[in-house]
Amino acid sequence: MATDLINIGQTGANAARSALSVTAQNIANANNPGYSRRTIELAEVTATGGVGLMGDSRMSGVRVDGIGRSTSTFLQVEARRTGSDLARAEVQLAGLKAAETSIEQAGVYPALVEFEAGLAALAADPLSAQLRAQVLENARTLSSSFSLAVQGIDSTAGQARFAASDDVSQVNVLTAEIARTNAGLARAQDGSVSKAALLDQRDTLLANLAQRTGITTEFDAAGRATVRLGGNAGPLMVSGEVSDTLALTNNADGTISFTLGGNPVSPGAGSLAGQAQLLDRLGGLRSELDLVAAGVIARVNNAQANGVAPDGSTGQPVFSGTGAGDIAVSLASGAGIATAPAGSPANSRNIGNLTALQSSLANGGPTSAMDGLLFALSSEISSRSVTRDALATIAGSAASQLSNETAVDLDNEAANLIRYQQAFQASGRVIQTAADIFDTILGIR
Amino acid sequence: MANITNGTAGFYQRSVNEMAGLRRGAENLQTQISTGERLTAASDDPVAAASLRRLSRMDRLAEVDSANASRARNDLQIADGALQTMANDFARARELAIYAANGTLSADQRALIGAELAGIQNSLITSINTRGIGGNALFAGQGDGPAYTVDAAGNALYTGTATAGTLSLGEGLTVTTGITGPEALNFVGPGGPTDILTFIKGLADTLQNTALDGAAAARSSLSGFDEALESLTRAQTVIGVRVAWIETVQDRQTVSSEARAQETADQGEVDLATTISNLQQMLTVLGASQAGFVRIGQLSLFNSI
């Protein structure tokens, strides 16, 4: 009887010590973002009744049944999904903002206005060499600001492609790791410390993967993850211990596309989807800029062809090139600007042709096209900022709920520390009591 | 049991995010106050940015329009001065013609008057070939050379274009930047349509040739002088009207530019009173939030164990 009591006290002390280890582990990992709070699962140890032993009150204490892990599959899925959406929105917004900054800093719009202003000033004194030189310089500034804007867009696109290719290799590392973790999970025993650690690792890997691409996950009884790209019917990225390789293709038009195991796929969400959509938009932006530049080239060169320069010759093209990327000033000197209409004599102060050029630039011309481009871009950024903020709030609250469910609360752990310490002391007292009883029995004479 | 806890790492992360958000807001307001501009990028307020863009374009073009208007006005005033000089010279020529009409003068004396008239004609040619600030001949229309050239026989010939150029003053308003020589000098004399230079040269030649009847020629020319003077005065009036028109346009430009400045201020400039009070409010909230964070951060059960 007394030895039973010592055993019970011993199991209690052991359980309390295990619980204290779990508490210590939780406190140590309080700042580890991938760590889910551990709980200890205890089970009573009793002898089940046998023949002739019915109603026996033989109790044997407590044992550690397993190390539990606080988690919520629903909140995990929610946190991954909202994290994916937020990553996509952020990548897109950051890229568009970079493009906006480079177009605004290139100063295409002010350069267009300066060019118009130069032409207006020339109208007051069409034969002035200084004013002509000024117009030509304005044209040069204009062409270089177009080049600057294009360089800005191209460099943003280059960065997006670079980041996408880096993300793709990260995705492949992550899927391979998930497959390896699946292999570990298959061998780990339920309720073991190593199983909990592997599950933590699995969830961290999945969260990282979800930052890069939209995924859907399923778990089997052993906790092994099956990962699909995109929705429920998406292609398999990881199944059991096998992962498929994601590959990136740089298309000729500057956009990117993806293949998974050789089949074309679209990530749907995550930073990869953000990069792909950003590159589509940047391509559009570039062709819009090309259109504006082509408008300038066509209008100015047409006007030149319709007029005569001060030396009486037909005007030669001011700009060469076909778009924003290759626009350049080809006129050698300001003396070649054709201000007078065709048929005018040499050194005519008639500004008919110049006026025609001015009005073709002013009315629905490149200046208003550029204004429209900037307005469309800035309002797109503005509305995307609102979307991003909304997604950030949603993702933040999902992450916060998940952390409430799984993260370590130090106050809780401090309470547990006291609780298990008391339990340990109480078990010690049980052993002492058993020893006293034993001594009492031995002392009977 | 649903064991909902308040994760410690989560608490720190949330507090840091909230304080960072407040700090970002305060810094943004501070930037607005120190730059005086409400928008740092067009995407902050696309509509206001688009208006500001158009306003800055209109401002820049209006600047040129205003410079062009001043320039046109100066040219017209120089042309007005030249016409005034010509009118004075012409009045002297008329006096000389009245002298010459006097029958008591000898042919030699008339020849002297003729010589002086020839000098006046030269002076008139100089005046009509006056050039503006940009070196353009003011009475040559859209031509670049002198308005009148003198051939070997001393006849002045108009070499400019038929019409004067027009200049845009912005907002769809234009002004004709001058008048051509013929518009100022042509009139219908006693012997049919002619111009002042030919008219005076004809009289000077007749008077200088002592064989001809200078007195009769001078007498018959007097009515021509009146017509010619009227033509000159008419030209001066036209120029005066155009100068007045430019002044009206300039007033209008000033008003428009004030309206644009007001619009720019409304759209893009910081209202200091509101912004500073917002900044103060945000700083108060930030300070309270920081103090709260420190107090809550100090609360740990471990301190009591």
Task: Describe the model.
The complex is a heterodimer of chains A (445) and B (305). Chain A is of the alpha+beta class and 445 residues long. Chain A has helices spanning 2-28, 73-106, 108-124, 129-187, 193-212, 270-306, 352-362, 366-406, 410-443, and strands spanning 38-46, 59-69, 215-219, 225-229, 236-239, 242-243, 246-250, 256-260, 263-265, 307-308, 319-320, 328-329, 340-341. In chain A, the strands form five sheets. In chain A, strands 3-4-5-6 form a four-stranded antiparallel beta sheet. In chain A, strands 7-8-9 form a three-stranded antiparallel beta sheet, covered by helices on one side. In chain A, strands 1-2 form a two-stranded antiparallel ribbon. Chain A is rod-shaped, with a radius of gyration of 37 Å. Chain B is mainly alpha-helical. Helices cover 68% and strands 8% of the residues of chain B. Chain B has a two-stranded antiparallel sheet with strand order 1-2. The interface between A and B is large, with 61 and 49 residues.
Helix proportion of chain B: 55-70%
Q: Helix/strand-derived class of chain B?
A: mainly alpha
Q: Could you tell me the strand content of chain A as a percent range?
A: 5-15%
Number of strands of chain A: 13
Unreliable sequence segments of chain A:
none
**Oligomeric state:** heterodimer
The main pleated sheet of chain A reads as:
4 strands, antiparallel
Question: Got a strand count of chain B?
Answer: 6
Separation, N- and C-terminal Cα atoms of chain B: 27 Å
Radius of gyration of chain A, CA atoms, in whole angstroms: 37 Å
What is the H/E string of chain B?
HHHEEEEHEEHHH
**What is the count of helical runs of chain A?**
9
Query: Unreliable runs of chain B, pLDDT <50, ≥5 residues?
Result: none
Within the largest sheet of chain B, what's the order of strands? Answer: 1-2
Mean pLDDT of chain B: 87
What portion of residues of chain B belong to β-strands?
A: 5-15%
